Amino acid sequence: MAFYIITDSASDVPQSVRQEYKLHVIPTPVTIDDVDYFDGSTIWPEEFYRIQAEGKSDIKTYHISQQMFYDHFKPYAEAGDEVLYICFSTGIAGTFQAANLAKADLLEEFPDFQITIIDSKCASIGFGLVTYYLLQMQKNGVPRELIIEAAQYFCEHMKIQFTVQTLHYLYKGGRVSAISAAAGGLLDIKPILVVDEEGALKGSENVRGWKKAVRRVEDMIGEKCRDLDR
């Protein structure tokens, strides 16, 4: 029986890390002009962002479905392997629930299947870093029980805050209204966004100007991380 750490493409784990650790990354689906693509499989971020920037296509995203998870998990169940899946935040998408529904289906067929699903309560490189640290631990021979314990600890203590250059994509994703997006563009307002303790994306404050917004994010990180050397 082997022990595998897997994640999904919302973690933004670099291709170099995927290759080095032979990491299984479940692709997140996206629809472009009514055609389905899969992040990191049939479309890559560079191409997606280029299409998005052109603004000519109708783009929609949706979380990985129960059936997709079932298909990705099943080979491990059939082989008698154990899986630790680090999942995109349940506060942002329905990924965690879909993964657990697939787990329940598989346990009916494979009652001995050992799979641990951890809600990262993170987005993007936040849980990408968690995954990377766990892979390093595994490579160094750390027992799976400690890896799972570390995964829970890392996810509970991860802090994410960032800003954006434009409100356009927040509007397209339903995060801000059309009026707020238009007003923000005219006034050069940059929101400071955080992922809260429940894993949900929240606005923290607004800053005028890109450089000031970046500086404010840096200051906030410094305020929260001043005791890291202790």
In short:
It is built from nine helices and ten strands.
Topology, pairings included?
Elements lengths: L2 E6 L6 H7 L2 E3 L2 E4 L2 E4 L6 H10 L4 E3 L4 H14 L2 E6 L7 H15 L4 E6 L5 H15 L4 H14 L2 E4 L4 H5 L5 H10 L1 E7 L5 E8 L1 H15 L6
Helix pairs in contact: 3-4, 5-6
Structure, described:
Helices cover 46% and strands 22% of the residues. It is built from nine helices and ten strands. The protein has a four-stranded parallel beta sheet, sandwiched between helices. A three-stranded antiparallel beta sheet has the order 4-3-5, with no helix packed on it. Strands 8-9-10 form a three-stranded antiparallel beta sheet. It is globular, with a radius of gyration of 19 Å. The termini are far apart.
The residue-averaged pLDDT reads 87
Give, in spatial order, the strands making up the sheet with the most strands.
2-1-6-7
Unreliable runs, pLDDT <50, ≥5 residues? none
N-to-C terminal Cα separation, in Å? 39 Å
Report Rg: 19 Å
H/E series, N to C? EHEEEHEHEHEHHEHHEEH
Dominant shape: globular
Work out the strand percent: 15-25%
Helix percent reads: 40-55%
The major β-sheet equals:
4 strands, parallel
Structural class: alpha/beta
* Total E-strand runs: 10
> Number of helix segments?
9
